[in-house]
Amino acid sequence: MSDCIFCKIINGEIPSKKVYETDKVYAFHDINPEAPVHVLIVPKEHISSHNELNHENVDVMKDIHLAANEIAKQLGISESGYRLINNCGADAGQTVFHLHYHLVGGTAMGSKIL
Ligand code: 5GP
Ligand code: ZN
Where, by residue number, is the active site (predicted)? Predict the structure, then answer.
């Protein structure tokens, strides 16, 4: 997708602070962190939101979740804990329409979802 910010980050057109990369996923520090650790994990394939997951493209979710485990270990939050968050659509506040998971941690966030 030529006008997608995260596609441009994945192909290097827009710089990012890379944390982790495989042939299927790319992860980088959020530009506007909301926690001491705030990493975005994205599939290299352009999938615009969670709504667009289907039987053909869902295998990448395995890679995203395993990436989250590796990154949590790498950044020292696997034992202290973290959240893995996806915002889908307007009510969730999705602003970038390329599927992504926020990996946030490094602080106690309490037990409330909202
Ligand atoms: P959403 O609200 O769609 O779930 O989250 C989009 C996230 O992307 C936000 O946390 C925002 O700070 C981050 N973001 C937007 N543009 C850029 C960018 O150019 N670089 C990086 N590293 N993060 C970005
Ligand atoms: Zn994209």
Answer: 100
